[in-house]
Amino acid sequence: MSRPVVKMVELTFEDARKLIEIGAVGLLPTGACEAHGPHLPLSTDVIIAEAAAERAALALHDEGKAALVLPPITYGVTEYAQGFGGTISISDATMRAMVRDVIGGALRAGLRGVVVCNAHLEPENIAALRGAVEDCAAAGARVAFPDVTRKPHALRLGAEFKSGACHAGDYETSLVMAATPFLVRADLASTLPANPISLSEAIRAGKKTFLEAGGVRAYFGDPAAATAAHGDELYRELTDIFATAARAILTASQENR
Fold first, then answer.
1. How much is the pLDDT for 190?
2. Spatial separation of the C-alpha atoms in residues 57 and 51, rounded to whole Å
3. pLDDT at position 3, please?
4. How many degrees, rounded to 5, is the angle at CA 92 between CA 147 and CA 100?
5. 64 found inside a domain
6. What is the pTM of this model?
7. 1 falls within a domain
8. What is the rounded CA–CA span in Å between residue 69 and residue 55?
9. pLDDT at site 256
10. What total of structural domains would you count in the chain?
11. With contact defined as beta carbons under 8 Å apart, do 252 and 234 qualify?
């Protein structure tokens, strides 16, 4: 049995319309173009967000629920990685407006609601996402933002994630290995010494860049410990987090019909 197509951009407009007409929910991946160590691509956050959203959409399909993965937002507020080649940051106002407009456009296109599936965890970026979702919700939209940096979600994503030393370490390297292994420089990752500095604690202490925080090669955590199998375990958790939010939207929409 062939796997269903859940990425909206891979469908024709007629195929997309059929799913929208039966009440599809949209999953919006959000990431960044940002340095992730010497071993991972600049698109790491986009890869993770889109892979998690696709797995969530497939899980919903298996339950007989319609879901579409929207085209990802590939830029974000990423000031901490400034100075590392290829990093491109946008303002928090632009991020908030862009996400708000994409959600609004998706709802005008007929989607039942939108779940924001974010993998770029810089605090200012998360604040912009939360602001966009609040703007949409205030206007009556069915929208959800399961913030994985907060409880209870954060407790499900492993010891490294909970430590805060999880930028391009075991957590993100494992996730990229499980989704796009050909983009991981695995031989290099296996030689990198662990950097146990907690980025989240450094941010709370007032550090403003990866360099100030102690990430001289733009990674925190233990890339050498990463495996694709661990990545699949993490995706199972992310899939459930995002699919649960989508189910809540679908349930609410049915109750209000």
1. 97
2. 10
3. 82
4. 65
5. yes
6. 0.96
7. no
8. 10
9. 66
10. 1
11. no
The CA distance from 210 to 79, in Å, is 9
Return d(Cα 236, Cα 251) in angstroms, integer: 22
CATH value at residue 177: 3.40.50.10310
Tokens linked to 41: 């691509």
Range of the domain at 200: 8-255
Place of tokens 């990463």: 226
Q: Look up residue 172 and give its amino acid.
A: E
pLDDT in tens, 173-210: 999 999 999 999 999 999 999 999 999 999 999 999 99
The answer as to whether 3 is a domain residue is no
CA atoms of 238 and 158, how far apart (whole Å): 12
Phi-psi region of 23 (alpha: psi -120 to 50; beta: other; left: phi over 0): left
Would you say how long the chain is, in residues? 257
What would the two tokens of residue 109 be?
A: 């296109």
